[in-house]
């Protein structure tokens, strides 16, 4: 697969290893350059028992163990967006294995919005400086000898990006599997019409491009899945496939979103993920707390 319109060689076929987290229905990935031992981790998960206020790293430890077992070199930790349904384990993995942590540059919009929601003080930097790299639309980076690029795909959140690595694209929450449709667009900064336009950018990639989901919920009782293709999404996606118009999508998405509950982990997730996966700073006694804004979301 090759396409001169894009800054990557789509004939490169990275090895993609998924790690499914059943507590949050999140799929994290280790993506290996086929020409070297370099790899990237996409959308890692930190475990939280919210009721008990307990943080653990079982899911991240599986990824770390795999990278050690395969003798890989971690070069990048990629966040497709500021997740509202799970906490990132990127800084934990980075401490163990190194690598650079990257997210879209519109993280600053998310930090400004939720810095106010959580009444963060001036010590909370809203300039994205918690991350090593802030990607802009079309930015290119290397994973070993494999070139990757970031595609700006807002709509679910203002900071969403799809990362294309060879013939594989990691779509975050921009798309779900064809029978799952698309993600909600009613979070602060989200917009259904913008999401439709972003999905069209993804569907303009070559039909045989592999697409990897960030979430799957097994609709209608099927087994969990996370890989499809652009062609399958164009033809079969229940929200945008088969030539559905922007007007049809916006009407459906707006009505559907009005019926959805907030994600169970949205309050801890946003506080941690807007800090690049770090917990809020401890108080003077050394204890760390997460805030619950009353009627703030």
Describe this structure in words.
- This is Beta-lactamase-like protein.
- By secondary structure, this protein is of the alpha/beta class.
- The protein has a single domain, classed as Metallo-beta-lactamase, Chain A (4-Layer Sandwich), CATH 3.60.15.
- Helices cover 24% and strands 22% of the residues.
- The strands form three sheets. Strands 1-2-3-6-7-8 form a six-stranded mixed sheet, covered by helices on one side.
- Helix 1 runs parallel beside helix 2 and helix 4 crosses helix 6.
- The chain is globular and about 55 Å long.
Short key terms for the protein model shown above:
297 residues, alpha/beta, Metallo-beta-lactamase, Chain A, six-stranded mixed beta sheet, 24% helix
User: Strand order across the biggest sheet?
Assistant: 1-2-3-6-7-8
Structural class: alpha/beta
Q: Biggest β-sheet, characterized?
A: 6 strands, mixed
Rg, rounded, reads 18 Å
What's the shape? globular
Please give the number of β-strands. 14
Mean pLDDT: 93
Name the CATH superfamily classification.
Ribonuclease Z/Hydroxyacylglutathione hydrolase-like
> How many domains make up the 3D coordinates?
1
Helical content, roughly? 10-25%
Looking at the overall shape, the CATH architecture is 4-Layer Sandwich
**Uncertain segments:** none
| Strand content bin | 15-25%
CATH class: Alpha Beta
Q: How many helical stretches? A: 7
- Named CATH topology: Metallo-beta-lactamase, Chain A
Order of helices and strands: EEEEEHEHEHEEEEEHEEHHH
Domain Metallo-beta-lactamase: 25-215
Organism: Roseibium aggregatum (strain ATCC 25650 / DSM 13394 / JCM 20685 / NBRC 16684 / NCIMB 2208 / IAM 12614 / B1) (Stappia aggregata)
GO molecular function: metal ion binding; sulfur dioxygenase activity
Protein name: Beta-lactamase-like protein
